[in-house]
DNA sequence: TTGAATTCCGTGCACGGTAACGGAAATAAT
DNA sequence: ATTATTTCCGTTACCGTGCACGGAATTCAA
């Protein structure tokens, strides 16, 4: 059985009033050192734990958390991330939290800056962000820190020291895992890496670490593997088939295909039309389109994270910090890498 | 911004008092039909949502939930399940919940019955159970239903209609997935299925469904595969090596090994000593011993669930039902099947 | 010593909901 | 018509914490 120790119990035991105990608990001063120590001692003795419900009820404030992630079309990676907001809002402990999504164009640095400014002027109590543009993000979190606003990273993080928490995938390991799944531990002769051509140099692309992990693995386990690259443009999906077709006639022996971003579904149409025996295609993230391709057999395996859960957890961590001043157990939270085949895609 | 509508608002709008509104909200009678309808209409109109914190604070009861799962040694499947209790107790919404584990000997029907009786006489407010013995479990849940005690299944469920929720793995599909990972979509010639010999017939073994899924897959994709069985006794681990060795000399061509329970680690020592090129070993569940074997390379892949999370979720669902009368969104919750290789075993 | 300025602390209401208690109103029994 | 029941509803005291307000106790200035 649990005994409930209240601040009133503490007040009585220390010969003071609950007001004083409260001031001690929240460090809001106006307490003599003697009383402070006394109260602290009693708290220790009785093993006081605050009643979360009463606390939240009494401090009946509305907080707002801004979520700064790109806009995206339905089914895309960032749209799934966005769903994490509703996922979190449906939990009982998030009443009293207003979570607002501040979107921007993933490929437009200016729009990112604008979104940052918008967040700053709404003066939120907490911020969740994916640091897409490095220098701009650094400036932004600097301002947040100056304004005493806690923030959490999702997807990727910056190397600084003021963030409350980070939720993301271990990128290097995900690349290794990808290579392991592709090769199945055997030596393979060749592989095609499909990439998306980028213009903006400041755009921070965490997938480079993934590629590095992949290449590390290959260097160690398949040093003599031919690694081909093919660059495509997602804004012109109709040209992709032609590019793949061209590559396929030039290198008909290639049986392994990977992509390190979330768009493996882009190659699915070509594969569906030109399937060859023994083809292995490995990609990332459980977008609807990717899962559909998986189920059709165009994609062999997907390595998935759960971006919605990451966002939800980030919001939750921030909520607990804001309302209860509770810091997360771990600051860097590496989420599990899910392997999806057509048999466990749910 | 959220406007907070309280029962007092409703009371005022309907010209009644909060006592009456409360009676309506909780269906505890003593309200005329006219008033009832009136209040209900206002609730609809204003879109009232109860304040969870206030509710939990006011009804300041201590509830107890009994968790009826087998005792197990550290690192074993049921011990991981047990950890779900602490996992759940650490969440803020579970204060006021006393969760007690009632253990029994997995392989002893009498001990299971005794545990059931123990649970009944402690009159808990909710029960989480894994229905290990079918007929005995049916009788037990019958008594729970009669006593109006809600209960949730974990791991496997019975075909009856009174349970609040079920959390478990889709067993048939897990068998298919296992086969798919083992064969990698190719035709294989032979496979060894290692099984544990059972004596007790009433013991309900959900793994038969897993085996069925596996065999289904093989029948469809590898109809001419030789399927060998080997029965071992977990209480005499020292004999296992001899049995495997014997099998290996009789069938040296077999390169694929599976087990459908969580004890794949039992074959790891033999494999470590007698590793052959191209061997594939697939098992279930992320026990410490299994993961260790995975990392050493004795096991190729593991299909894992998260028994602790299942138990935690079951407790949470029961808590919400008991305290807030909230039913779960889905009654049958099939957890995701995790595929583990040495690169994502964390 | 007296008054003013601090420092420190207790009191009391609020938060939204629960449920026991008792009384008014409506109905039934005499 | 009067009393006894039953039905229905309002009042009220909590649950444990947050916080504003004002007053007592102490220190400082004169």
Detail the topology: elements first, then pairings.
2 copies of one chain form a homodimer.
Chain A: H1 7-13, H2 18-25, H3 33-46, H4 52-58, E1 63-68, H5 77-89, E2 97-102, H6 109-121, E3 126-129, H7 134-146, E4 151-154, E5 165-168, H8 171-183, E6 190-196, H9 207-221, E7 226-232, H10 237-250, E8 256-259, H11 268-273, E9 280-284, H12 288-296, E10 301-304, H13 307-324, E11 332-334, E12 338-340
Parallel strand pairs in A: 1-2, 1-3, 3-4, 4-5, 5-11, 6-7, 6-8, 8-9, 9-10
Antiparallel strand pairs in A: 10-12
The structure holds a DNA duplex (30 and 30 nucleotides).
Please outline what is shown here:
With 346 residues, the first copy, chain A, is of the alpha/beta class.
